[in-house]
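User: Before I run my own analysis I want an independent prediction to cross-check against. Here's the chain; please return only the structure tokens and, at the end, one sentence I can use as a sanity check.
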Amino acid sequence: MLTKTTLINMIDTADQEKLARIVGRACVALFRRQTEDEKAINAATHNNNRGFTQGDARQGSITAKYFIKNGTLLDWQVNQWLRKDVRGTPRIVKYWKQLAEEAAKKAAA
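Assistant: Structure tokens:
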């Protein structure tokens, strides 16, 4: 089961290649939760608590599309999502609940 703590531990113990996979797959999972119109314009226009927040929607959508196309991310893309907030938490971790939901769906299938 994915929790905030397990996600942080995965990030802290991963090498750069694995970090690219973790961040890429997370962004794709969040991107797929966006509505179709949000996906098309790389923005979050609905306040539905699904997918990226407004502040992350453009970068998140672009990162997800890049990962889908190339199967990896560039170091600077990974670093953007691993940049820590004032509490010392990586940016991608704020989405841990949505990522846990997606992981549970995948495990059940």
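Sanity check: Residues 16-33 form the longest helix (18 residues).
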